[in-house]
Amino acid sequence: ALELIDFKNALEQFQNLVEKMIIQKTKENSGLYTKDGDEIDYDKFYTTVRALFGPAVKDQNVQAFFRKIMNNPDERPEWPEIFGCFAGERDGVSSPSKESMVLLVSEKQQITHSVVKRKDVIKGIVKVPFLHLTITASQRGVLTVFNKQRKSFFSYSFYFHQDTAWITGCDFLPNLKYVVAVTESTVILWDYKSKESKSDGFVIKPMKNCLLCVCTVTMADNLAKDTILMGDDKGYVYLLTITNDDFIMKQSKAEKESQFKVLDSESFDIPKRKLHDDWVGKIKYFSALKRFGSCSTDSINSFVLDDIKRLEDQLPVKEFSVPKGVNAFTYCGKAKVIVTGG
């Protein structure tokens, strides 16, 4: 209770400080302000905020708050922003967390489980909301599934070693319930649910070009198969459909090192189309648009957005050019816009 009272007192002083700054800035804009000893500049604002809230505020948030007031005093920022929080009525927060009685912030949980060793890096993180899973793939071959149960995370990991190939991307197959990952020359399908062996799965190889990215095509028309898209270092985008029957009919002997069953890539019908003149940096399927997107550092064919049927025919695709290409993109359904980063 004493902490809450002290916080309320500090908050009142902070809000009074903000009001003085707004009055000062408004007078400056109208030419009526004359500088005196009570002028509030950034140094004075920073020192006062630090004295009121101590280490609870970060320097970048103090700077951002000060700039907002100075740039537009009519649209004053809300006080939670000084703590880096952006809570409002539209956030839909019904009740505060027990661990956060003052600031309305979303609950977060840190995963302390170490999934990679030294000189290894995470190359992909995928969330599977309907199963409460988080999947990570490391460059040197560690695939991990975090399963949130009883408010804690359980993880299943295995180390995939295939020559010296590095993993370049991962995703989840929602119908077959497999983790898919791509290396420079193979496609990995890991059955993370297998309790008998952590190395239960399949490897599709060889792939002629170096695979750089992978994503799942989310369609609910057939629960017995999954479709994935892949991009390579020659500008090609691949379309690969996998069914349960493929696991039975096309497998060969397991290799000694990985114990993964090998599926010959030549036995699959894998349509591909050259959409870019440089590496395919990212590929993503947007179920809301029923379109896939792929990007490249290619300055002419920088970003493609079209139906996956275009990978099986030669009809023109919808694309646009950006100088020096596109490295990343995403889609916002609420705003109905696609944003690219070059």
TrEMBL record:
Q: Which gene encodes it?
A: Wdr64_0
**Signal peptide segment:** none
What InterPro entries does UniProt report for this protein, alphabetically?
A: WD-EF-hand_domain (IPR051242), WD40/YVTN_repeat-like_dom_sf (IPR015943), WD40_repeat_dom_sf (IPR036322)
Q: Give the matching Gene3D superfamilies.
A: YVTN repeat-like/Quinoprotein amine dehydrogenase
Any idea which UniProt keywords this protein has? Repeat
Write down what this protein is called.
Answer: WDR64 protein
Give the organism the record lists. Answer: Hippolais icterina (icterine warbler)
